[in-house]
Amino acid sequence: MLDRKGLTLIEVIISMALISIALITFLGAFGQGILLTSRGAELTQETFKHQGKIENEILNIKDDFANEAENPALDDLEITVFQGEYKSDVRVREISQHIRGNRYFKVLVSNVPIMEAQAPKVDLEVSLYPENQFPWYDNIENIRGEYRIHSSPVVFQNRIRWYRSKEEPENTKKMYTNPSFPGGYEYFGEIEEEQPNDFLKIQYLSQGDINFIGNRFYYFEARPYTLAGRLGHFRNSERMLILNRAGSQEWQKLIEDVYFENENISFRENDTIYAEVMQNPNHPTLNLDWKENKDPQGPLLTTPLPQYSEDAFSHTTKVKWQLDPRALSADLEQHGIGVFIGENDNKGTMMTFDVQNEQLRIDSITNNQYSGEIKSINLLSDERFEPFRDQGKFDWDKTYQLELVSRKVTEGTEIFATLLYEDVSGGVVKSECIGFTSNHKFSHVGFKAFSSENYIPNFHSEVHNQYDRNYAAHFYDMKVQAEHWEDGASHGFYQGGGNSSNIRDGANAYDKNILMDRENTKATGNETTIKANCLQFSKRTNLEISNNNTLMIKVNEGVIFDTKITFGNNSSKIIIEPTEKTPIFVNFESLESLKLKVNDRIIETNGLTSITINNGDKLEITKK
């Protein structure tokens, strides 16, 4: 049997005693904590109460200082602050407050400004050499940083540095960047000067220096501090961008003209226009916007068309652009970009890519306003833009190029527009031509970009980056080529000598634009093959394809039929094919009596005036 034992009386008494001691200790500590907390609250309240009294007395003393002539003070004290040239004798009045618990507050109030140490003074300027030189890397001999440190106050030490924006990693490099200072910069060329002299000094950053790199932003900084310990930072107020050349010569000239505000650049009158070309270290870029948060309709900036010639038969203008990704992600109420073609007085035609309405609108422009719709194209349904849609939506994210071919015609200017982009493999994806006629000549090109956000944001914080922008779009390049047509007869495109109007088989001018201009031009025989860069049949040719004959045309760029085409019989036909990788265009005066097939696929001709033929395809033209 187990021996069962309980607690003895002594053990019970000892346990109760221990519990009582612990309980008494806990209650005492807890009570003391409550008392201390309560006492602390009382002390805080008393402190704020006396602080309020002091503040009220300070206000009264300020009034006494202001009315000192009527109420002379009798209780002023005088104290001395600082030493040396900053020594000041200051008249003060004393305020004191006694608070129970042996606490005592004392405040000295003065109406005399105390002399403080002066900040260092520096004259600093950063410029290119020579002056008025656009900062293309290959043109710039050096950047010049000039500075002069004033002798008063005395500067103990000065430090100078160059700052250069950091290069982005290749896998994250964007088309444009906006590095913030100083985190987005690295410094080099640091020099420290002990007690520098008061005369002009120049620091050069020159070609050949390993630290002088293109496509970067630069700052020059002087940081002096005085014997009294005051520190100053002095940098060029505008960051300096050194650009590598990119884009066509016409584009580089446009960038320079905007930068220097040359006379041949016309900004929209009576409006605030933002035009900047020094915001992108990776590529010469034109950024545009204006004061309103809506479509400006007409161009914001126009310039004479480079290589424009009254004698040229046509001009080809190519404009490369990209909508800003951040603006696209914001799903703005209004957002778009436009290219203008027309006359100097802003009369012409505007092609506007409207993001919100998924639309390409082509309008006549008069006095910077829409004055008549020429075409309105739905980018989500028009077959010509099928290559640019992804899952039923137009792909606004790509960098596009708009190609405009203008030709002089009796009625004014005939324009053929094509949109294209380069895919990841380097191939070109192209829309079919959009043809229309303008009653203006095509002597100027203009640009616009717009969004429903302020171009320069409204900052509510005191510290911000002065280069932050709400970009709507970016223009990256412009190429212009004047097209001159050469007579086909002079290059052997007609049979024999004399005035024969029969086309000669084997005629070849791959590097020339050939104009066939003899009346009643005719293709005879079984097959006639001709080759050219671009081929045009004028109105008076009245082109005829004889019985059983095939006119085979091979071109680099395109074919223009400004004339009626007739066929001898059902076996007569025209076959057109590209010779290069890029697609070609074929324009017609009329398709009313013609049948078109591309690789045996019949093309619906209702409303068509032009067609695009891709590399490897063949266009067959026969009579209906």
TrEMBL record:
Q: Domain of life here?
A: Bacteria
Q: Where are the transmembrane segments?
A: 12-35
Q: Which UniProt keywords apply?
A: Membrane, Transmembrane, Transmembrane helix
Cross-referenced PROSITE patterns, in alphabetical order? PROKAR_NTER_METHYL (PS00409)
Check the record and name the InterPro entries matching this protein: N_methyl_site
The name on file for this protein is Prepilin-type N-terminal cleavage/methylation domain-containing protein
Species source reads Proteinivorax hydrogeniformans
